[in-house]
Amino acid sequence: MTKSTFATVFTQFLNGYWGAFHEALEAQSVTPSRLAGSLFKALQSEHRTFEAMYAGPAEGALDSLGHIWRELETRRYQSPDPGLTHDEIIKARKLFEKIYTSLVREGHEFPALRNTILQHAPHSTPKAPLRTDAAR
């Protein structure tokens, strides 16, 4: 992986894909049984964007995340704005962690770049403790 590719993929993962999931979890911490359609669409969009650019050892984890989003989309036809289940959240977090760990390994040659990207990541990393909405 080149330095430029790592910067692009790692930034997209943390700020785009992980960020969309993190925002969905924050919103769901306020209304546990619901996930706004706009947040779900953003999550799906970020999944597609990351899926199109990522070709690495954690592709299986990425495919499994896509399966979770398809299952949630199916439930959305049955009831309005259903939220992620507890099990889906746990599974998704583990899958995000696998992708994150893989990306860190792939970018091992660029520790300064990785640290710079991490310093500017508004949603931190999948391995960091989750924030929840302070209103709850």
How do the strands and helices of this protein lay out in sequence?
Layout: H1 3-30, H2 37-53, H3 59-76, H4 86-106, H5 111-119
Helix pairs in contact: 1-2, 1-4, 1-5, 2-3, 3-4
Can you walk through the features of this model?
α1 packs antiparallel against α4, α2 (37-53) packs antiparallel against α3 (59-76) and α3 runs antiparallel to α4. Helices cover 68% and strands 0% of the residues. It starts with a helix and ends in a 17-residue tail after the last helix. It has one domain (3-119). With 136 residues, the chain is mainly α. The protein is globular and about 45 Å long. The chain has 5 helices and no strands.
Output the structural class: mainly alpha
Report the oligomer: single chain
- Measured distance between first and last alpha carbons: 42 Å
Give the domain tally.
1
Count of alpha/pi helices: 5
The outline comes out as globular
Radius of gyration of CA atoms, rounded to a whole number:
15 Å
Low-confidence stretches: none
How many beta strands in the DSSP annotation?
0
User: What does the main sheet amount to?
Assistant: none
Q: Helix proportion of residues, in percent?
A: 55-70%
- Secondary-structure element string: HHHHH
Strand content bin: under 5%
Mean pLDDT: 92
